[in-house]
Amino acid sequence: MIPAGVLAAEDLGRVHMIGVGGVGMSGLARLLLTRGVPVSGSELREWPSLDSLRALGGTVFMRHEPSNLDGVDTVVYSTAIPADHLELVEARRRGLRILHRSEALAAAMTGRRTIAVAGTHGKTTTTSMVTLVLQQAGLAPSFVIGGEISEVGSNAHHGTGEYFVAEADEHDRTFLLYRPYVAIITNVDADHLNTYGDMAGLEDAFVEFGSLTDPDGFIITCADNDGVRHVADRLRAMGRAVYTYGEASDSDLSMSEVHSSASGVRYLATLDNEPLGEFSLPVPGRHLGLNSAAAVLTALKLGIDPEVVAAALAGHPGVRRRFELKAIAGGVRVYDEYAYHPTSMTAALHTLREVAGEGRLIVVFQPYRVYRTRDLQTEIATALAIADEVLVMEVFGPGEIREPGEGGVALTAAIDLPEERKMFVPSWEDVPGEVVRRAREGDVVVTMGAPPISLMGEDLIEALTQRSSYAPRHAKS
Question: Which domain holds residue 186?
Fold first, then answer.
């Protein structure tokens, strides 16, 4: 791999991105295009992000072909792209520069002070909150986020300010390519152990990530998470500046009187025992309040006024695929939620149950990655059992092989719900009909899990709307 920081975005020439429609890749493509870097990309499905890339001047090929690389200088791929992908093979044959997405993102960060947000979950919402706070403070940051900020309608932007806010993904060690000015670690929970072997290996990687922070910068960590506490202790022992947030009594930024309801979440905050007042979000979820505290502490350490921070968070519009209300159809609220790790699933489902009130909670879940579904099957099943009814699709795991006894069937069997309230539905086309059969007015339906499931919401809304429009006519006959 080319070391981070050696290249600048302008050095990349004409860039071609394999699988350009994914959230991470499309965000990078948007950023490069707005910086004037010519970008093409290839896809096999019409992702929602593609039209905006075309509008920015990007070229999108709806096929994978060697000819897509004609005139290209740099080819960018993600971890989801196999080594024998025909465009990667052709790029190697032609001797083109080949970069992992994170390497290309590191090139785009050159010359900026990077605020890198890491953690096994919570990265996207935390990154979006930090970004909006910096925008509210007039600092015009650049950013790349793993989900679109609903109000901004974008997952990336080339700003004029000195800061660059980005998620730092640990799943394939690529977060070790960055050299942040500020490193944020939201949590360190058991995940990606196929890469790290065990929790000790995972914690070692987060310590290394924190140690890459600029000596003049600082590290923000969550005091409520045991894994992060271990990492923070080791970083302090290395002489790094580490600041903590959370409900724990020894947090530098301490949260108290945390209250979450369907209308949002609010809490009181103190910094070094000095009261800061109330902070609130217009979206519910205790876990989102915790993420916002990371943004508060980061902003305060950068010298931003607390009132500016509070105003920014109070207007936070949410992030697409994070507790996103898609529509109300036939009296049924349809949400989309990215959570796939049991910790984040549990938090999201408890919040959705609050929102459902007297209605029922129906989950359509697409597991993400075979190894995770296998290794955390009990924990994922326990989280899903929070719902009233669950439809489980087959595991989304590009490049992975499912062994006998693994996957959606086994996960469905492990969910502690009566048989009539859970079902394995392997066919995409069968899901809307099954939701229509089960959902009643006042219920909440959420699509949850791997990226493709985000496209299911439109199908559910259409099916529920058709049922609603048909019922009165049928009743009169």
Answer: 112-314
